[in-house]
Amino acid sequence: MDYLGPPLPDPVMQHAKETYISFGCAYCHGLTLIPRGEAADLMHSVLVGADVDGSTIVPLLRAGIPQTPKLSPMPQFSDLSDQQLHAIARYIHYVRQQGRLRELTQSTPALAGDSAAGKAYFDERCSNCHRGDLDGISRKYDTVTLRDTILTPGRLAGSTSFAVPSVEDERTATARQRHAALLENYAPEDVANLIAYLKTK
């Protein structure tokens, strides 16, 4: 069972991981999305990053992808159930989020951000929930803490819980989902720009 790696704390995500492995995805794309040979780089794929609840990944898995000049073909998984296909998509997103977090936190933020670009990004993607809670944030957090708070807000930290009170907390679940989607799509310059903007507050 070593090829499964250490078990995940969330049993639902562990099942998704086992589904991803069982149907051969890990053979080409890697357990941690480090691809082998000509397999697509799912960790940095814009197409995968745009997926919402399997809306893009599931149809691709079901139909397969023919060979291209740069990539090997991907087989059809038309015999899998919707539940199995969505489990594979769920695991891919989970690993992307963990991988992007590692990439963005490997060292102290070094990029010089653009506060105007950070404001534009914030206004477009963050302001619906956070417009009123920025005053004094630059005095409260240093650069590294600001970065870490952007990537993994403390209130949303931890694994998803399936206890009844947690399941019924739709607001937290929605916030966690939105931040997870942002995390797996952040470019280093996005984070640097957000930090530069928050330092003006």
Mind telling me the C-alpha Rg? Answer: 19 Å
* Main sheet overview: none
Helix content: 40-55%
The average pLDDT is 86
| Structural classification | mainly alpha
> What would CATH call the architecture of the largest domain?
Orthogonal Bundle
Helix and strand sequence: HHHHHHHHHHHH
Number of domains: 2
CATH fold naming of the largest domain: Cytochrome Bc1 Complex, Chain D, domain 2
The rough form would be described as: elongated
Q: How many helical elements?
A: 12
CATH class of the largest domain: Mainly Alpha
Strand segment count: 0
Distance between the termini: 50 Å
Q: In percent terms, what proportion of residues is strand?
A: under 5%
Supply the CATH superfamily name of the largest domain. Cytochrome c-like domain
Please mark out the parts with pLDDT under 50 across 5 or more consecutive residues, or reply none: none
Overview of the structural elements:
The chain is an all-alpha fold and 201 residues long. The chain folds into two domains: 2-104, Cytochrome Bc1 Complex, Chain D, domain 2 (Orthogonal Bundle); 115-198, no CATH class. The protein has helices spanning 11-22, 25-29, 46-49, 57-63, 82-104, 115-125, 127-130, 137-140, 143-151, 164-168, 170-183, 188-198. It is elongated. It starts with 10 loop residues before the first helix and ends with a helix.
